[in-house]
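Archive entry. Fields below.
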Amino acid sequence: MQIKQISVFLENREGRLADVCELLGENNINIRALTIAETEAFGVLRTVVDKPNEAVRLITQKGFTANLTDVVAIEVDDRPGGLAAVLRSFVDADINVEYMYGFIEKSADKALMVFRFDDPKKAIELLKSHDFVVVSNSDIQSL
Amino acid sequence: MQVNYWNKEIETADRAEIEAIQLEKLQHIIKAAFKTPFYSRHFKKLGIKSPRDIKTFEDFRKLPLVSKEDLRRGYPNGFLAGENYDDVVRMHSSSGTTGIPTVIYWNREDLEAATDLVARCLTAAGCTRSDIFQNMMSYGLFTGGLGLHYGAERLGMMVIPIGGGNTIRQINTMRDFGTTTLHITPSYLMHLATAIKEHGIALETLSLKRAIVGAEPHTEETRRKLEEIFNIDCYNCYGLSEMNGPGLAFECVYKNGLHIWEDSYILEIIDPATGELLPDGETGEVVVTCLNRRAMPLMRYRTRDLAHVYTDMCQCGRTHRRLSRIKGRTDDMLIINGVNVFPSQIEEVIMKIPEVGTNYMIHLTKSGAIDRLTVKVEIYSKMFSGDPVELDILKDKISEELRASIYIHPRVQLHEPGILPTFEGKGKRVVDERGEF
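PREDICTED_STRUCTURE:
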C-alpha cells in the first residue's frame, strides 16, 4: 500500500522552507516525515503529511511548484540491525531503493521509514511476504 | 478558416494598384514635407523643387534615410508641417528615458486614417463587433493604448479601457464582462497566467478567445507557449509611434507574418551598414514611410528593427506583403566575448523547452576579461516531477541547447515560478553588469 509524498521545488533563497512549513502549520496540517534533496542551486523538499491532497492544493495555490509521488512507509524494528534486515530482503529480491528517509514517531518500539522504489508493486509484495508492516494513509492520519 | 476584411478592395488590390496608390499619396506627403524645417532643408540640398520631382520609386529612394537622432535633433517641431499647431489635434511622445523624446503630431484626417488602419488590423485578426476588448496597455503618451482603443471602437467592439497594471482587477473584469480579446504585452500575459492560477480561477470560466500581443518583440515559441497556457489565439502586431503607433503591420488569422498595409506605408528593408536596399526574403533593417500623416510627414524612417519580408502569398487573400517577426534591434544586440547575440535568440531556445516556464532573465557579468552569461529561467510547474536529478539534467540541457545556438556556454539557474521580476509593460530582461569597457 502506497502513501502520498509531497515534493516541493525550493530555490536557494532565504525563508522558502520556513514559508512552506508555516503554510502547513497555519492550516493545521501535520508533518510526519521530511527530507530535503539538495543540489548546489536548489533543493527538493520531500514530506509526508496527514492530509496530502489538501496540503498540495494549498502549497501550489501559494505559487510553489509541487507534486505528489507514491512512496511506501514501513515499520522497522527499533533495534540494532532492524533496518538492515529490511534492506537485505530488498537486495535478495533485486529491488532497488531510489531514496529513503526516516519518519517522525513519538512512541512505540518501531521506527518508520519512507522508501521510494523503482518497482513499488514488487516491493510491497515482498514486504507482505516477510510480514513487514506497511503503513497506510489512514495510519498516517491517526499517528 | 473564416477570413474577414475591413476594406476588401484595398486589402486584396493587386501590386500595380497598390503602387499607384503609394505614388499618389507620396505626392501629398512631399507637399506637406515642404512645410517642415527638416525636409525643406534637405529638398533644397537635393534640388527637389516640387512634389512632381518624385514620380517613381527610384526618385523616392533619393530621399534621405531619417534616423531617431534626426527626430531628436528636430525636437519639438522640426518635422511639423506648418508654423503652429492650428491643424494638429493630437501629439504623442516617447518617454525620453534614453535621451530627448521624439514627438509625433496628427491632424484630424491623419488620426482618422490611422484609426481606420487599426480597425483593419483587428478585423484581420478575427475580431468582430461582437467582441469584448480589454485594453491592458497603458494610455497616455504611449501610442499603443489610445491607438488600439480608437481602432477597436471603430470596429464596434465593446472597449474596456482599463489600462495596464492592477492584475486582480484585470482578472475580475475579464470574468465579469466576458472579455474575449485582450490587448497586452507578452510579458504581462505571462504574468497573468501565474496570477490567474494563484487566485484559483479556472481558465474555462473566462471567455477569452484571443490576445493581441504587442509593444515588445517576442518569439514564435513564446506565442505558442502563451496559446497553450490560455488555449487562445495570440496575434502579433507591429507598430512604432513614428509610424502612427499600432496599425502598421498585423497578423491575420493565418498567423504567418504581419501584413504591412502598403496602401498607407512604403516598406523597405535595407542593409543597416550600407543603407542598400535588400530584396524580399533577406533580413535587414526595416525602413518605413508613412503615407497617411500630413501634420508630421516622415519618410524613409530607420526603425532599427531587424526583419525580413516573406516572398510567398498569404492564404487569407490579402496582397499586402508580410513582415517577419522582429528578430532584434540594431541597437539591442549583445556582444558576449566577441559573439553577437540577440536576446530573442536566447528566448527562442529556452521557450522551446517544455519544462521551462513563462519567465526568464539574461544576466551579463564580467569575470576578469571574460564575459559571463547567466540565463535565469523559471520552471514550468506542470512539468515538475519531484525529482531533483531531472532538474539537474534540465539545467544541463538548457545550457547545452543555448551553447549549440549562440556558441556561448551560459550558466543556467532554475527558479520557482513567480520569482523572477514580472513586467506590466515592456519587459526588461537583460541586465548587463559588465560596466564600461
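CURATOR_NOTE: The domain at 1-331 of chain B is CATH 3.40.50.12780 (Rossmann fold).
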